Amino acid sequence: MHIHSSIAEMRAALTNRGRIVLVPTMGNLHAGHIALMTSARSHGDTVLATIFVNRLQFGPNDDFDRYPRTFQADCDQLAAAGVDLLFAPTEADLYPEPQQYHVDPPEIAHQLDGEFRPGHFRGVATVVLKLFNITQPQVALFGKKDYQQLMVLRHMTRQMALPIDILGGETVRADDGLALSSRNAYLSSAERAEAPRLHRVLNQVSAAVRAGEREFARLEREAASELDQHGWKTDYVAVRRQADLQRPQPREEHALVVLAASRLGSARLIDNVEIDAVGSR
Amino acid sequence: MHIHSSIAEMRAALTNRGRIVLVPTMGNLHAGHIALMTSARSHGDTVLATIFVNRLQFGPNDDFDRYPRTFQADCDQLAAAGVDLLFAPTEADLYPEPQQYHVDPPEIAHQLDGEFRPGHFRGVATVVLKLFNITQPQVALFGKKDYQQLMVLRHMTRQMALPIDILGGETVRADDGLALSSRNAYLSSAERAEAPRLHRVLNQVSAAVRAGEREFARLEREAASELDQHGWKTDYVAVRRQADLQRPQPREEHALVVLAASRLGSARLIDNVEIDAVGSR
């Protein structure tokens, strides 16, 4: 696996590489990332991973400084997964000067995670646009655990007329249901034992909706309350439309998704569960 | 010359075209545009012009509706100038849904023309980014008459890590000095006779600066006053640094530019004159 940090070298290495499949990451790779790499192989000729902890998408109180960085182990995993190329720029490579031009996403990016992480999706969209411009892939894969991110990037790509297919990879979970995440490393062992509740609660909401329950606001309140009674501090639990993360319209059938973000100890965990199309009366 | 309006057709027509040189326009072409097309020829293998009157860069009180549209004559001129391909999308092609993702430019885009045309450069940057993504050129040419636009697009391109060289074409002028512009068509014959004063006044400021004058604020006021005394309504006259359009720093040597926007009758005209590097004490 060839590793590049400079933009010019990365570009040079991508000539005559056929159909390029990009998998951007912030490193500290786990089985969820590796599943994306494996899936990527089937979508093109060259699998290109990136590792970059993007300061632009972290708020002043976010965990940029302590975000786990495990570069050598990441490289080993990527090589073992058959990844062809790794782009791992430094901040000086990607932001040689303060970033003054940004992608400005619409209102939906200021809801849900965007409400609790102001500027987050602006930072995500901007760095991903730069990565797209540098690597010019035909396909890019992102995990569904970051569901809102996937939607923002899919819409940005379409609205900016980028010739890139955006694909989502299924969330990979531990045996007890906890979605794999680099931020799970912040959990104490007691918190780790409690953490699967997030997924269980989302499954409960999903089951209630599938059973015909349509008082989404009550379901959301009850789910948040159950988490908070067990020591979580919940930012949101929300039933939304899969396509655009807007609130479901009454009396329309939509494919839905239940999303949540909640803090347990010093970790802020997010997760979601998709629900097939249901009427929402 | 092949003409395309759909994005998919345009993309298909651009495969195996070698080095692509893009010249975006809003149509109603004059000798300034044609000079860009001729220059484009020397920078690559395929010269691609675009014609699109971009609603996104017009304010509610701007001249979107009356902006001159002369498509057939434009096509004849482009073909005669040896342009290979024309991309002329409709609004439905380029904005099949309301544009919700934008390029957000920095503070400088809210000064000068940006102060008097709020959102203008956001609209320009967004549409040009889309045109770049659709056509993926190696080089793009823009006229220097829209000096601030050229700077914004150059900076956006660099900051978004787009592999595109942005080149500026010299302003083409009528014999009496008036910069060619589609908006000159709004002038009555009396106004047309008055219009060259804009360039004369900019030349006066330039001459004063080259002669050592450094009270830029006074020069700007006097220039605006001279215009206004002759029936103009001046938005600004400004001496700025060429590189970033910031105000010159005292006691530093900069390449400067004098820019102005002023309204004469129902036309809002802009122009500028570059000044070679001078100390600014």
From TrEMBL, chains A, B:
EC number of this enzyme: 6.3.2.1
Record field: catalytic activity: (R)-pantoate + beta-alanine + ATP = (R)-pantothenate + AMP + diphosphate + H(+)
- The highest taxon in the source lineage is Bacteria
Please state the pathway this protein functions in, per its UniProt record.
Cofactor biosynthesis; (R)-pantothenate biosynthesis; (R)-pantothenate from (R)-pantoate and beta-alanine: step 1/1
Q: What is the lineage of its organism?
A: Bacteria, Pseudomonadati, Pseudomonadota, Betaproteobacteria, Candidatus Accumulibacter
Q: Which GO terms describe its molecular function?
A: ATP binding; pantoate-beta-alanine ligase activity
Its EC top class is ligase
Protein name per UniProt: Pantothenate synthetase
| Coiled-coil portions | 202-229
UniProt-listed SUPFAM superfamilies: Nucleotidylyl transferase (SSF52374)
Q: Where in the cell is it found?
A: Cytoplasm
Q: Which organism is it from?
A: Candidatus Accumulibacter aalborgensis
- Indicate which residues the UniProt annotation says bind ATP: 26-33, 143-146, 172, 180-183
Q: Which UniProt keywords apply?
A: ATP-binding, Coiled coil, Cytoplasm, Ligase, Nucleotide-binding, Pantothenate biosynthesis
Role according to the record: Catalyzes the condensation of pantoate with beta-alanine in an ATP-dependent reaction via a pantoyl-adenylate intermediate.
Q: How does the annotation summarize its subunit structure?
A: Homodimer.
| Positions bound to (R)-pantoate | Q57, Q149
A GO BP term here is:
pantothenate biosynthetic process
Report which gene this protein is encoded by.
Answer: panC
Q: Where is the active site?
A: H33
An additional note in the Swiss-Prot or TrEMBL entry is: The reaction proceeds by a bi uni uni bi ping pong mechanism.
Output the Gene Ontology cellular-component terms.
cytosol
